[in-house]
């Protein structure tokens, strides 16, 4: 399945007004005009695509969909065939949904844990349309997309591993450092970063733990860090450099209670000729100064009551 990256991602939030100031002022996102079909939602641009991160008003702060981008229409058709071969339930996005997401065509499906995914090609794009919400050097999107996500799952799931490997055709990257309960995966066509998505076991709970956002310059990490400190926003981890990736980053909590990891690449990713077994997560920094799992993670019946509630 010729997936490039997470092209767009959507969350539901009870704090949309906080996001309206936080997005541009802290993260440097640009507020894009909301499509006429969805005037109450907040659409953020990170580059010349029409939207990368969308916040939809709702009662619960949670991830609502991950939009995987395939290269083109032919890859989209092939992906549909693949889902059918594996008896995955897919629904075809109607014209209205495609307009909301700003794409030519999309399908919707769930992974075996119950997270909602979408797959699309051809998102709306206007060259030189991106103007950051504050002075900012810009985000690395293009082939990297909106960034990476780390999701929690209530228990280990062999069905999920089978789905990611054999249906989505992701590349396995490895386990995270520490107790080894988080598995990292990369889209087939991603040769720029080690992972697009990771699933970690948090017994009895699910939800988004963090999202990684790539910025162009060290300065953008530093200036975001300064703003987070100045506004006294809660930190998860201080500045640091990861062991497995040549990344410098820090983690703080956004209004929805999951972390944004603001990342700069110190050098290009070296690839993964063999699987590493890191004994430490970071070579320096990344001091844990807040909870590792925020309020966005909870019992499945609390986070997704319509799916797991009584
Ligand atoms: Fe990350």
Structural description of this entry:
By secondary structure, this protein is α+β, with helices and mostly antiparallel strands. The chain contains 7 helices and 17 strands. The strands form 2 sheets. Strands 10-11-12-9-13-16-15-14-17 form a 9-stranded mixed sheet. Strands 2-3-4-1-5-8-7-6 form an 8-stranded mixed sheet. The longest helix has 13 residues, at 73-85. The radius of gyration is 18 Å and the shape is globular. The protein binds fe (ii) ion. Fe (ii) ion binds next to strand 9 and strand 13. Belongs to the extradiol ring-cleavage dioxygenase family. One of its GO terms (molecular function) is ferrous iron binding.
What would the keywords be for this entry?
alpha+beta, VOC_core, 2,3-Dihydroxybiphenyl 1,2-Dioxygenase, domain 1, binds fe (ii) ion, eight-stranded mixed sheet, about 300 residues, Glyas_Fos-R_dOase_dom, 2 domains
CATH architecture assignment of the largest domain: Roll
Look up the CATH topology of the largest domain.
2,3-Dihydroxybiphenyl 1,2-Dioxygenase, domain 1
Helix content: 10-25%
Which kinds of small molecule does this entry bind, naming each only once? fe (ii) ion
Number of helices, counting only DSSP H or I runs of 4 residues or more: 7
* Global morphology: globular
| Cα separation of the termini | 36 Å
Oligomer: single chain
Task: Look at the structure and give the mean pLDDT.
Answer: 96
| Main sheet attributes: strand count, strand direction, barrel closure | 9 strands, mixed
């Amino acid at each position: 399945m010729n997936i490039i990256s997470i092209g767009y991602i959507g969350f539901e939030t009870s704090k949309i007004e906080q996001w309206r100031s936080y997005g541009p002022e802290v993260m440097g996102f640009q507020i894009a005009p909301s499509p006429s079909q969805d005037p109450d939602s907040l659409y953020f641009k990170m580059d010349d695509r029409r939207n990368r991160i969308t916040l939809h008003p709702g009662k619960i702060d949670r991830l609502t969909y991950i939009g995987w981008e395939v290269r083109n229409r032919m890859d989209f058709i092939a992906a549909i065939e693949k889902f059918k071969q594996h008896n995955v339930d897919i629904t075809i996005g109607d014209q209205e949904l495609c307009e909301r997401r700003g794409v030519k065509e999309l399908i919707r499906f769930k992974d075996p844990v119950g997270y909602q995914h979408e797959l699309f090609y051809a998102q709306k794009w206007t060259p030189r349309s991106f103007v950051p919400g504050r002075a900012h050097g810009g985000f690395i999107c293009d082939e990297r997309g909106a960034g990476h996500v780390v999701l929690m799952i209530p228990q280990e799931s062999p069905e999920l591993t089978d789905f990611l490997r054999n249906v989505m055709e992701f590349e396995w990257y490895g386990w995270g450092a520490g107790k080894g309960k988080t598995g990292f995966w990369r889209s087939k066509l991603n040769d720029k970063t080690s992972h697009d998505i990771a699933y970690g076991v948090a017994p009895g709970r699910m939800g988004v733990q963090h999202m990684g956002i790539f910025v162009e310059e060290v300065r953008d990490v530093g200036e975001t860090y300064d703003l987070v400190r100045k506004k006294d926003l809660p930190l998860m981890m201080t500045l640091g450099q990861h062991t497995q990736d040549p990344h410098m980053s820090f983690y703080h909590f956004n209004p929805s209670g999951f972390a944004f990891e603001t990342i700069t690449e110190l050098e290009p990713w070296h690839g993964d000729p063999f699987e590493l077994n890191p004994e430490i997560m970071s070579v320096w920094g990344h001091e844990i100064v807040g909870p590792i799992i925020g309020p966005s993670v909870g019992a499945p019946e609390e986070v997704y009551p319509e799916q797991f509630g009584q």
